[in-house]
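Reply to dn_fold:

You asked what the input looked like. This is it:
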Amino acid sequence: MRIVNRLVLLGMAAVFSGGVAAAREAKVEEPLYDQLLRECKLTEEQQAAVKEKIAALDEALAAWDKENAEKLEAAKAAVKEARSRDDEAKKKAGEDLKALAAAREAAGSGPRKAVLALLTDEQKAAWGAYELFQETVSRYRKAALTEEQLTKIRAACAVAFAEIAEAGEDSKGAREIRNRLRWGIDVLVLTPEQRESVRPVKAKGK
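and this is what came back:
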């Protein structure tokens, strides 16, 4: 279990300390280019090409947003309204919103692949590890993670992504790696109070 071992090796975790604070403070609106420049250390030759591809990505997403603006607003309103209704209504509203999010993601899939195609294998690995780190940290947003904890999680995500890439993104092995990553963070990184803060709230009467 290389991921778990990495979590307890504090010295090794320090290797990934650069960029952790920036990633923590980065807002959702942080431009994709800025993130790529920081995480992948783009060369001067890559920078212009990446900007061009990102412009195409932005255009594709803007076109989708314009075409689906009414649907998106209706879905958001339905989610808000469903909060005071039964579980089935909440589930349907949530699924509808997720479907729109998936459609938007698909609209930018081609341009996004074009951006990543400009990266070297090493840069792709760095970007994949960063995305896994961001995805993982979002699960613990209620835990008020410290800088030290973020550093450990980032180190674990770098190892996990390498293992996932080797196993195959959609493979059973990749799912097991993600599960071990979450287990390692829950058990070896979080405090008891933090674990309680991120524990799913049980429905009343259950």
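The mean pLDDT is 83.
Hope that clears it up.
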